[in-house]
Specification:
Elements: E1 3-9, H1 15-26, E2 34-40, H2 45-57, E3 61-66, H3 72-81, E4 87-90, E5 96-97, H4 101-111, E6 117-126, E7 128-136, H5 142-149, E8 161-163, H6 164-169, H7 178-188, E9 193-204, H8 207-212, H9 216-231, H10 237-252, H11 255-264
Parallel strand pairs: 1-2, 1-4, 2-3, 6-9
Antiparallel strand pairs: 4-8, 5-9, 6-7, 6-8
């Protein structure tokens, strides 16, 4: 099966992390047929140099430049237009894919042709992959994923592989949170999901990530997204009220408490 890899990058990314991410996908047991790298706005000279170095070494890397920073969702939508193949793997520029990630995910699509999206577990690490903080586990089967999606995001976006056509039919990325919204739209559109029951990616974690996810801005965005999910008939009024109360509380509590909850209750 022919495979595209879709990546978006913006100026705040770390050039060393970018190199590690690219190395991890270009040395897979099953290598991709193309890598679509979207430059989301003007980058630093360091990042541009790394990208040019890899493009010279690996002709399968193709870049797409956006004049201004559009945000992840819009950048990925633009990148999808340039993916040549229906099977698309997502990758972020600061994570590290395990060597057999693509091989194992492609086997799922080969074995189950009706699957539209396949993700897996991820291991969150700090500094080095020897320092694993937690594993984000998700349910395996489509029916379990539907139930899980009523309360929490059912797919690990950084390690997802999906059929481009299914994403486009659901309307692509939009709003906040871009990934969760897309999965809900795909579920309601009849797409079939599967999560491999093992970690296939190292996810770079930092306390600043938890800090950035707090405050009224995110609380209000959470409320809006939950209302939209209710309108899509993902769940009823009782679940809507419960989800909003829990999510708003987590957004507004002090950062250190949110960090403890994130590590001890929202991860395994």
């Amino acid at each position: 099966m022919m495979l595209s890899v879709l990546i978006s990058i913006y100026y705040k990314e770390n050039k060393n992390y970018l190199s590690q991410a690219l190395d991890s996908i270009l040395t897979q047991t099953v290598r991709p047929d193309e890598v679509i790298l979207v430059k989301d706005g003007e980058l630093t000279e360091e990042l541009d140099n790394v990208i040019e170095e890899y493009k010279t070494k690996y002709p399968i890397i193709h870049t797409l430049s956006l004049s201004t920073n559009q945000g992840l969702g819009k950048a990925l939508n633009e990148g999808l237009k340039h993916c040549s193949y229906d099977l698309v793997a997502r990758m972020d520029t600061d994570d590290i894919a395990k060597p057999d990630r693509f091989e194992k995910q492609i086997k799922v699509f080969e074995k189950f042709p009706d699957i539209d999206i396949c993700s897996a577990w991820i291991e969150e690490f700090e500094d080095t992959t020897n320092n694993i903080l937690s594993v984000k586990e998700l349910p395996e089967t489509h029916s379990e994923i539907i139930r899980y999606a009523r309360h929490r995001c059912p797919v690990n976006h950084p390690v997802v592989m999906y059929k481009k056509e299914a994403v486009l039919q659901a309307g692509g990325y939009e709003g906040f949170p871009e990934d969760y919204r897309l999965w809900v739209k795909m579920l309601k559109n009849g797409s079939h999901f599967y999560n491999i029951q093992e970690s296939l990616l190292y996810f770079r974690f930092s306390r600043n990530m938890i800090k950035r996810r707090g405050g009224w801005k995110y609380a209000i965005a959470d409320m809006k997204s939950q209302i939209d999910f209710y309108k899509l008939k993902l769940f009823g009024i009782p679940t809507l009220i419960y989800n909003i109360l829990v999510r708003v509380a987590i957004r507004l509590i002090p950062n250190n408490i949110r960090y403890l909850i994130y590590q001890n209750m929202l991860r395994k």
